[in-house]
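Sample intake sheet
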Amino acid sequence: MNCLDSDRRAQVIRCLIEGCSIRATVRMTGAAKNTVAKLLADMGCACAEHHNRHVRDLRVRRLQCDELWSFVGCKKKNASPDQKAEGWGDVWTWVGIDADTKLVVGYLVGGRDSGWAHDFMEDCASRIRGRVQVTTDAHRAYLEAVEGAFGMDVDYAMLHKIYGAPSDEEQRRYSPAKCIGCDMKTVLGNPNPKHVSTSYVERQNLTVRMQMRRFTRLTNGFSKKVDNHRHAVALHYMHYNFCRIHQTLRVTPAMEAGIANHIWSVEELIALLPRPTVRPSQIDQELFRKALGESA
C-alpha cells in the first residue's frame, strides 16, 4: 500500500471529522478504502496516546458525565454468540466534560456495567487535581464508581430525569418521551444545587452524533468493527478539544483549559502520526530502477 502525502492525509482526515463515512471519503478523495481505514486506525491510536499523555493535571470545578449509546455490526438483541465474541452489539461511550472550559476530560468506549464505570471514573479522577463537583444521571453503576475513584474528596449529585408516558405518534419509537421534571439526589459531599446539571455533556453528545457518521441513527453508517469505532471516537475528541473553536468560548476547549496555546490545525494532527517507513520491497524496486538507469 502506497503512503499518502501530507496533503492527501489532511484531506482524508477533514472528511472523517466532518461526519463523512469511509466510502464517502473514498469517493471524495480518491484514496483506497483500505488506505482510509488504515489512516483512521493510525490517527485514532495517535490521538488516544496524545490525550492520555497531555490531558492531565486539570483544575476542574464541575465535571458532568454521561453515556452515549451506539452499536457495532448490529444491535445486541440481533447479534449471535459468535458475533458478540467479535465485539458486535451495543457499545457505550462514557464521556466526562468540564462544564467551564467545555474540555472533554475523559472518554471510554465499552459496556455499561459497573466495571466500565469504575474504569471510566478512575481515568477521569487521575486527570483532575483538587476537589471537584460531579454530576451524573441516575445510572446505578456511578454510585460506587465515583466514590471509589475520588474517595470523599468530591461533591457528587445524581440527576434523575422523569419522563412522561409516551405518545401515540408513529415516531415515538425513535424519539424519547417528554421530560416532565428532574429529581436531584445528593450522594457525597455538599454539591451546589445551581450547578447540578448534565446539559453540557448532553449537548456534546449531540455534537458527536452530528459529526460522526457511526453515531447517526437509522442509517447503515454504523461501525462494523469495535476497534474502528474506538479510533473514530479518539479522533473526534482530539479534534473537538484542540482544533475546533467553541462558539461560546471563542477558543478551543484545550486553550480555555490551559493545555494548549493556539488552535491546532489538521496538519498538526497529522504530525502526531509516526513517520512512514519504507518497506523492503520498495527499497528493492528503487535499487532495481537505479541499476537499469546506470546500465542504460
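Comment: The first helix runs from residue 6 to 17. DSSP finds eleven helices and six strands in the chain.
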